[in-house]
Design brief:
Elements lengths: L1 E17 L9 E6 L6 H4 L6 E7 L3 E15 L5 E6 L5 E5 L16 E12 L1 H7 L9 E3 L1 E4 L7 E4 L1 H5 L6 E9 L7 E2 L2 E10 L7 E17 L1
Parallel strand pairs: 7-8
Antiparallel strand pairs: 1-14, 2-13, 3-11, 4-7, 4-12, 4-13, 5-6, 5-11, 9-10
């Protein structure tokens, strides 16, 4: 009588896989340009204006931006415009020509005098200017970015740092452009400016080895004779 018995030989093969994880934490990048402006008329009155930059070396994703102008003075607020330009050339008015109660087509005649932080969490510069009479100074504080509306230049158009810059990478030259549209003897200066960029990490690969098993069954037969 023949009897067949079966033997299962199990062979397990191991493989490795590599996955990418991000280990870089988010951070606030603070860059100061100490150059300042000694005279708006002589330095920033020729179109398109005076450009000053900071070079950001970190490669991160932008989540938010603020711009602080320290020691800003100018005797006619409506003359001065300020733009922020990202490394990819995206440009936003931080301060566009601001019309006002007595400035007419020349812009608001309130004064700059102090340190001003521009942030998405700020209040309306236009509302503040409307409260000033004659050449009173705008109160130092936190204001949102804005410009005159293209539909009605007497109305404020709010500009959002987040809408313009979120999701872009930080690395490269960030430029602030100042333009004094008058150049007719309006006095003023700027001590320096600070750009703060809120960020989150750009994923950078690190190695993690995961072992996976593959089972292969091998059947063999052996005949026995009784």
């Amino acid at each position: 009588m023949k009897k067949i018995s079966w033997m299962l030989l199990a062979t397990v093969l191991f493989a490795t896989s590599t996955f990418a994880f991000s280990t870089q934490a988010k951070a606030d990048l603070v860059y100061v340009n100490p150059t300042g402006v000694a005279s708006w008329d002589t330095e920033a009155s020729t179109f398109p204006g005076l450009e000053q930059s900071v070079n950001v070396t970190e490669n991160l994703f932008v989540t938010g931006v603020t711009l602080e102008l320290r020691g800003l003075t100018h005797s006619w607020l409506g003359d001065l415009s300020v733009e922020l330009i990202a490394p990819d050339s995206t440009t936003m008015f931080v301060v566009g020509q601001l019309t006002g109660e007595s400035g007419g087509g020349f812009g608001d005649d309130s004064n700059w005098n102090g340190t001003y932080l521009f942030s998405d969490d700020g209040t309306s510069l236009w509302t503040e200017a409307a409260l000033r009479t004659g050449t009173e100074a705008i109160s130092p504080g936190i204001y949102r970015a804005s410009q005159a509306s293209s539909l009605d230049p007497t109305m404020e158009q709010v500009n959002s740092f987040t809408s313009f810059f979120a999701g872009k990478t930080t690395q490269g030259d960030w430029t602030v452009r100042f333009y004094d549209s008058s150049g007719f003897g309006e006095s003023g200066e700027l001590s320096d400016w600070t750009l703060t960029i809120q960020t989150t990490a750009v994923p950078e690969p690190t190695s993690a080895i995961v072992i996976t098993g593959i089972g292969i069954g091998l059947l063999t037969s052996r005949r026995r004779r009784r």
